[in-house]
Amino acid sequence: MTFINNLESPKFDFNDISLVPSILSRIESRSEINLPSLFPLIASPMNSVISIRKKDRFNEEFLNSLLKEMMVCIPRGYEYNRYIELFKHSSLNKSMFKSISLQDFKLIEINFKLFERLILQDECILVDIANGHMRKLLDLSKLFIKNFPNKKLMIGNIANPYTYDEFSKIGVHYCRIGIGGGSVCTTSANASVHYPMASLIYECNSIRQANRHESKIVADGGFKNFSDIIKGLALGADYIMLGGILNKCLDSDSHPYLWKKIKITNMDLAQWLYRNKFSLYKRHVGMSTKEIQKVWGSYKLKTSEGIAKWNKVEYTFDGWVENFNDYLKTTMSYLNCANLEELKEKANFIFITENSFRRFHK
Predict the structure, then answer these.
(1) What does the alpha-carbon distance between residue 146 and residue 132 come to, in Å, rounded to a whole number?
(2) Global pTM?
(3) Which of 65, 105, 234, 247 has its CA at a distance of 20 to 30 angstroms from the CA of residue 259?
(4) Which pLDDT value is given to residue 46?
(5) pLDDT tens-digit series, residues 133-179
(6) 126 near 100, Cβ under 8 Å?
């Protein structure tokens, strides 16, 4: 048995730290801050966030709204022809990842022609598996990068900074980090495998800087609010992947239920109920639950490492985006940062006590 850290330097998470303002800031207005055209966010490949398996106003309008603000990972198990119909002539296609399983990825060495057809019209591929620490994934990623130099590859999930190092060395474009932190994931609770997200981001970024790696850090799982997202970016994440936060949007793919009982399938009615303060809820389902395994067509259902729960609808997507934009710029103005690169370079943190956190946490 080996401990790779000691009690004097425990790993930390977002509630354990706080950003510190610059001594003096040159930023006089949020309008001086330059953010990229797409936020550093990625929509998680979860059926209760986004899907295009069916023709429906909820999912088509939400997908288009998402793609104008952030990158998107389409979940596995959707109708591929529907995807082609919607986006084959769209520039938005460049900010969308197609999710595939490890079994799909293995086709690259078993049946190359079939794999080539599988990803023919996709520029960005996500190998969407729970355990990204398999050596097989590393070996297959090498083959992909060699044979498809013009396509982008995202792998994950991983939860060890040195695993990020291994995938970065072979040129993987995006590494999805984090295990067990998501609101509907029970892997860490049951399997005892975890790495606190704030430490994981910080250490992956430190390895990247020391070795001049180019692999993007995609922090995935457990982001509860604007503060968590902003801290994650300041610690060095290139992107934050969001699931539950987006599920709570009125217009996300999962249909709202009135009082958790009556399914609302009409968008106009849903908007009227929301404006008039009715209690609307959405089901949020973990991607390793037996419910989702059935959607994927699995005949032999495995032990679930996720749950399904109700989330109360808290905001519209446009309202959430407006607030995120303003809070991010407010943080950057305090920290004297005109762009996201400066945020990563200049951000200073302090460790705080639990009592300190409770003092300002509302």
Answers:
(1) 20
(2) 0.92
(3) 65
(4) 87
(5) 999 999 999 999 999 999 999 998 999 999 999 999 999 999 999 99
(6) yes
Establish how many alpha carbons lie within 13 A of residue 190's alpha carbon, considering only the half-sphere containing its beta carbon.
Answer: 9
d(CA 293, CA 106): 19
CA distance 290 to 240: 26
Q: 231: part of which helix (H) or strand (E)?
A: helix 226-235
| Rounded-to-integer distance, Cα 282 and Cα 258, Å | 9
Which tokens sit at 31? 């309008």
In the beta sheet, which residues pair with residue 312? 281
Q: How far is CA 232 from CA 16, 178, 243, 291, 301, in A?
A: 13, 12, 15, 31, 35
For 14, 101, 353, the CA distances from 361, given in Å and listed in that order, are 12, 39, 12
- For residue 130, what is the DSSP state? S
For 289, half-sphere exposure in the C-beta direction (CA atoms, 13 angstrom radius) is 17
Contacts of 53 by beta carbon, 8 Å cutoff, 6+ apart: 77, 78, 79, 82
Report phi then psi at 316, rounded to 5. Answer: -90, 160
Pair of tokens at residue 40: 């550093």
